[in-house]
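Reminder: ligand-aware prediction takes two inputs, not one.
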Amino acid sequence: MKIRYFIQVLAVAALAACQPSGSPSGDPEESAVTEEKVGTSPYTNCSFDSAASGENFDTVILNGRVMDPECGFDGMRNVGIKDGRIALITEGEISGADSIDATGHVVAPGFIDPHQHTWNDYGQHLLIQDGVTTGLDLEYGALNVPKFYESMAGESFFNYGVSVAHEAARIAVMDNYVHDKGTDARYVHAARTLPDTTRWRDDIPSDEELAEILALLEQGLQDGAIGASSTVGYFEAGATTNEVFKVQKLNKQWNRVFSSHTRGQPEMPPPREYSMGSRETIANQAAIQGAGWHSHIQRSGWDEIYELLQGLQKQGMVAVADIYPYVSGLPNAAAVPLEFFDMIGQEVEESLMDPVTGEYLNLEQLKDLHENNPQKIVVVFMGEAAEEGWAKMEDISYAADSVPVMDEEFNTLPLDHPKDEYVGHPRIIGTRSKMFRLAREHDVPLMNTVNNASYVPAKYLSMLGLPGMQERGRMQEGMVADITIFNPDTIRDNSTFALGERALQPTGIPHVIIGGQFVVRDGVVDLDSRPGQPIRYPVAQD
Ligand SMILES: [Zn+2]
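Here is what comes back for the chain with zinc ion:
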């Protein structure tokens, strides 16, 4: 299959004539594909007019509006899928063993989420209903990279990948703690809140410790991690600028992305505002011409951080951010200092919620959680929603930042756990559908939203040579058949913070295909499908 694919792609690449994706167009009339263009993938193929063959495809998607942001293509086409790949895009009549009619729907590259932490069945089956076909954790990551990939093989609805975790490396070196089950986000809340693991958060490592931390990160890069990532916002008092700079330089050495939850806090007054923290990593990446990914920039200061990153993008750099369209976070109680709400000028009783009961908490209750249940997940509402601004951002990615969905004892929930008893954040199933709704409400061209939902992560990670992203995020012949089919007129989120509504399925995303397999069909999840493939660099030889 592999060999056949490469031959096919090389053959069509020679004929391909492409145009730059350029400014997005909302015109559903077909885009002209005329100019020469070099894509971000060696397999870029902007040919959308193949002759219909008599071939019997595995699956055909008929009469849909195919959109490909990389080539700027937007036109009515039939799509043939064979052996897990997009084999043909044509105006001609085609047939297959299986067939769906996509009249009135967009046939888009599957949505790619670069920042989510959901490695459990239950959470994943919610994310795929929002159109997600690839989920990466480029924020927290994992320390033992091979162990992470082994734990996911054959077990994942969507394609999966991680960075190597700066925070977990600090916990391992400075507190001598590694969770016996694993080192990815499923186990982080436990590590963060153990009473005797505090050095990672509060202390500056010795020179020897820092050397060990960097060696662990380099081991992760060698093992194929997508980058070395830092949640320095959770240990800002313990990390010098020099430590962060060194982690960024390590990424540069490996030509990988440094992704980060930067210092500071949204809504915080100077000098601890979030944009100040972003500046640290932006200055470093500008100086070393390194790649940077900035987590959840949607709250206060978002427009400024966005402008800074756009400035770097214009210079050809990989400088990207992700957003989720909500003004609420989901930390554990221990991560919310008692003085926090005073500092951001908000009332505790209006800003802090127990997600399980839906009730708002007061300062005494927060204090009680700090003492008796620091791992408890709470909802923190901060600042104002900037819905129009979010919807109009270009070349940004959408990420749910969804946490592992587990019960209070850290066990994964069974797939038959009732959806109306899900007490997590509605963003897990509403991030992308909400962005499409906001874009529609604010007259943003559809191609811009498809670009952000599908292509942006693939584009920037392709520029860094990540193989799995060079053949995804694109509706092009030869690419992996990860496809999200949605109705542009009706797509919307339905999940809210009201109890019982947290996991309501979005409207208008009837079909989601991963590697040629339906994981959602006619709005129903195939609970037995696990087509997810690893997204990682090849393991480097010594
Ligand atoms: Zn974060």
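The mean pLDDT is 91. The first strand starts at residue 56 and ends at 68. We will return to this case in the review session.
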